[in-house]
Every structure is written in C-alpha cells, then in structure tokens.
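2024-03-11 09:14:02 INFO receiving multi-entity request
2024-03-11 09:14:02 INFO entity count = two
2024-03-11 09:14:03 INFO echoing inputs for audit
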Amino acid sequence: MKRKMKVFFNRGILSGICFVIVVLLIFVAVFAPVLAPCDPNVNDLRNVVKGISGEHLLGTDYLGRDVLSRILYGARISLYTSILAGALSAVLGILLGLVAGYFGGILNQTIMRMTDAILAIPALIFTLVLASALGGGVLSIVISIGVSLVPTYIRMVNGQVLSIKESDYVTAGKLIGLKNIRILLKHLLPNCFPSLIVLFTMNLGQGIMLEATMSYLGVGIAPPTATWGAMVSDGYSYLTTAPLLSILPGICIILVVVAFNVVGDGLRDALDPRLRGKL
Amino acid sequence: MSEPNILLKVENLKMHFPAESTWFGKPTRFVKAVDGLDFQIEAGKTFGLVGESGCGKTTAGKCVLRIFEPTEGKIYYQGTDISRLTDSQLKPYRRNIQLIFQDPYGSLDPRQSVGSIVREAVLADGKKRLDLDVKARVEELLTLVELDPSMAGRYPHEMSGGQRQRLGIARALACDPKLIVCDEPVSALDVSIQAQIINLFESLQKKLGLTYLFIAHDLAVVRHIADTVAVMYLGHIVEMMDAGELYANPMHPYTKALLSAVPITDYYTEQKRSRIVLEGEVPSPIHAPSGCPFHPRCQFATELCKTQAPSLKDQGGNHLAACHNL
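2024-03-11 09:21:47 INFO inference complete, emitting structure
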C-alpha cells in the first residue's frame, strides 16, 4: 500500500496538481451547500449580467443568479453523472467483453455484432436519442451516457481477453483444474486492468463532456438545475459583453477532464506489480 | 487394458488441423501435425521426444494433455482412453497430467505473487483445507524445487529464468501429478541453469516417482535425462530406442544426420568427423510427401521409399526404426 502511494505521488508536479483538482472536485461537490454564498437558483432580475463584485465574487448570469454558486453546484451534477455513467458502462462492458472473448462462438458473435451496430451510430446522436427517449432527469442522462460508452469497453476487453486467453498461464490454469469463473476473474480481468483504468478515467472526462454537450443542446438536465454545460450554453449569447459567464464553467470542464486522465495514468502505474521498485 | 506398469500408451495418434476450407467452412486441406504416433511410457521412466521445429512433438504433447482433442487415435492413461473424454469426464484425470512450459515467464501470471501461484494450484482441486495446512504445503513445494519460501511475496518479473522455471515446476507438483509433460523446459534457459533444472527433474523423479514425457530438440539433454528416445520427423516417429543406443547405434538416416549436427567440444575430433548435411528444407506438413516422409532429403532413397511408407520395425534390442534400407 505504502509502495503504491509512493509510485502514485512520484510522477511529478502535474500528477500532484491533477490529484489536488480531483480531490477538490469531490470536496466541492459534497460540500456545495455549505460553500456556496447564494442559492444557485434564485433570480435577481435587478442584477443581471453583473461582473465581478464584492457581493457576487464571479458575477451574475442573465437571470441574476450567482455564478460561483452555480459552478459549485454544477460540480455535483458533473461528478455524479460522470461517475455513475462511467461505473455503469464499465460494469456492463467488462462483463460482456469478458464473456464474449473467453467463451467465443455464437455468444461472441452476438455480443460483438451488437457492439458494432451501436458503434455505427455516432456516440453523441445515440446518447441524444436515448436521452430523449428516456425523458429528462439526471437518471436518464446517466443511463444514456452509460450505455453509449459501453461499446468501447466491450471492444477493448474483448480484444485483451482474446490475446490473454491464449497465453501459457491461462493454459496452466486450465491444466491445474481452475474453474472458468476463477480464470476469468483472477487472471483475465486483472491483466486487463492497465488499459481499463485508463479507459475508465478517459470515460469520466468524456461523461462530463457528453453531459455538458447535452445540457448545451438542451436535452440534458432540466433548466433551473445548475450544470456546467448549461452554463456555457446560457452564457454563449453574452460572449462579447460578459465572456466569463461561458469561460469559467468551460475552464472547469477542461480542468476536471484533464485531471481525471492524469490521475488515471498514475493509478495504472501504482497498481502494476511489474513497476515495483522502478518508479 | 495393458500391463500395470505402463502409465501412458498412445496408439495411432493423429492430429490434423484444418488449413484451408471451402466457403461453407468445410475443410479441404489439413496440416498433418501428428500423423500416427505409437509409443508407451512406463511408470517412473522418462520418454524423450526429439525432432526439429515443426515436426509435431509439441502437438503430440498437447494431445496427451488434452489441450487438443486428437483427430484420431487413442491415448490410454492408466488403461483408460482419455482421448475422447469431455471436459467434465476428464476432470478426475486433469490434475494427474501436468505441463512444464518452454517459456517460464509466459507461463506465470505477471500480476500474481509466487505464493499465490502455488497456493492457487494447491487449492484448485476444490478440497477443503485448513489455512495452516495450505501454507505448509506451499512452503513444502517451494522447498522441493529449491526455492526459498521467503520468496513467496515476490512477483515473477523479480525472479531469474531458472527461478521462474522452478516456480512452474512447483505449480505442476502442487497437483500431485503422475505424468509431467515437459515441453522444451530448458531451451529458454542459460546452459548453466539448464543443468540445474535437469538435475532438479531427476531428483524429483527419484523422490516422487514421476514419469516424464520430455520434449526437446537438444539431443544432449535428452540423452542425459531420458530412458527411451523417439525421434520425430514430420509427424511420424522414425526411430525409437533406449537412450544409450541413440549415440552408440543410430540407424535411421535422419537420426544420423541429426546426431552429426551436434557439436563436439573436442577440437580434433570435431575436425576429423564427417558431417551429414541434409539437402533442402523440411516439407510442409500440408503437402506431406508420399511414401517415407524423409525420402525427398534422404541420400539413400529408392523407388520403394517414394511410394510406400515404412513402418517401425524392430531391429533387435528394443530398437525400432522406420526405414526400408535397414
């Protein structure tokens, strides 16, 4: 454990900064009600699109709502949707990919051809259609983002399993009489981890992006709720007069997406026994 | 079925892999990797299978292990034919026959510690045991293959090639096997380590009464460890004899050529001897030659050799050879 921490934190300054950003995001998401100076959904039509001031640290938007509070509350939605959607797609994708790759045959054909069918539709359109079919709400967004991310997991796990299952240690496992389920969970799955962790953190970022895009396009979470995507979209019309309205939530999205990716790389190295004592 | 001291008996073993097929998936051509093997191994003995790459020796081993289901032929393990058993029927025999791999590193899960690899093999029979007993057994096995039990916390990448191979042996032994198929177990190791591992194989055989099917291309190694040696060429056994006879009295032209390729350490002897250099390449097992498989490269080949395949005939003193010209 100590060694893993060491590997994780020995990856340089960027890694450290990104770790702090992720921790900060979680902290902000959890304590948003305490930290936020105002209610994010209260309109104040006398103070519309005000710049930075003592009362509103980051100004107000076109309905006079406090931008800082909305960003803090928006972190909640972003974290919530990306982690839930990421977990959903990871569980489904890993399961299907493992089964398809290991057992092969008709099962493999069925799962992989369905994956191909989903991949043939552009991810954003697929998510949009799914989200509008499921109706609004956070849960439907989570499900539609989750499902649209599943094919990448299936493809990747399937490919890894196909190569690993031909390896000598899997043959040895069969010869010593291991059950299939044990070979799958104890040998195939852990050896897929390095790429899975990277994919998972990439998908967390992608989840935030998709959620933001959908909010921007207006199929996402219903309007009064603060989300970063919706904030970028709302501020768009004031880009020349009050650029901060769009830029601030935009910066948040970029920072979090980058941070997730870098932290994922660190996690991958920390969990790899082959790097023991080398970093 | 057969004499009680025969542990493994292989009859007319054939393994053909489909090479080309029609549009509908019906195979039209086959790679005849193994094409009619007959041999038997006495309990407690070592049977050496030699031949150059691609002659089918590993395929034969994998058929015995039932990693492949043979196309034809029978494999009797202690009198029971295991060649057609389904996975569930095979279960009671699975752990009795184990494999030592050519590539020790590839045979170990890089994410599993040494102790965990052996423990998994001990526990895989599904019997209930006390944790303490399992721990003792793991230590016993590691000691048996001359690994320090304190290495249990290490990972395969932190070990040397020889240590990895010892670990592979410990894993095989954890199943209490009777027959161990050694598929070129030392060819990936340094020469100095090879000797250690060979000695380990021998001492384990004495201690545990193991039987080996030893697959190799190194004649010196095979002569050292094997009791009986079979020489394979293109899926056939061309000569089979006691290990001592291999150097003393090779009969088949292929065996002679093989032996003349073994380097001799003494310079003057090396200078004096004449080499038999074979012409051409090994034919593809897809287009196996008619008659004797060796005839296109054999300097003694006659018309008979081109049309009719020779069978293994006893040349006296347990020495079998398949050649028309003997």
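2024-03-11 09:21:48 INFO post-check: Chain B touches chain A through 31 residues (CB under 8 Å).
2024-03-11 09:21:48 INFO post-check: DSSP finds eleven helices and twelve strands in chain B.
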